[in-house]
Amino acid sequence: MTSTAHTQAAPGPRPVSNDADITSTTAPRARRALRTAGWANIAIAVAQATGLIWAWSMFRAVGIEADMRELATQGAALPYILTLITCAAFAAFGLYGLSGAADIRRLPLLRAGLVSIAVIYVCRATVYGGIAAVRDGDTVQIVFAAIALLIGLCYANGAFVQRHPTTAAPRAAAL
Predict the structure, then answer these.
(1) Measuring CA to CA, which residue among 162, 90, 171 is closest to residue 124?
(2) Is 72 part of any domain?
């Protein structure tokens, strides 16, 4: 009879990979935050694409009608093209959120993407319009800034967890 003790795994917790993986059981809140942010971005992309049916009403509702009319003087299709480009950006942001939540396959440069998206949203919520909207009392823009801040914080939380993995259990030495 031969002994197989040297081939059996040591009792205790499973070893964690050295790669920072958000699928560990210690990051359910970060996964939920990234999932929420990802689906929110996909919903924004779908809403924008659907809103193209009533483009000028949508532009008026979000407060960019004058800018889009000025853009249309340079080319009638430009407001529509710009809207489709922003739809694609929101969809990409959504896919990165879902990838960070481990709901879809891991996308390239995931951590960098999550950090970049978080910075974009937090800047939008504060520097680019958020503070001015509060100062001016523009309720619609305050709501947009608050939504951007919440989404940005979801991405920042997920990016932080992606960057700081849980400590790995020591691996059993191979004999």
Answers:
(1) 90
(2) yes
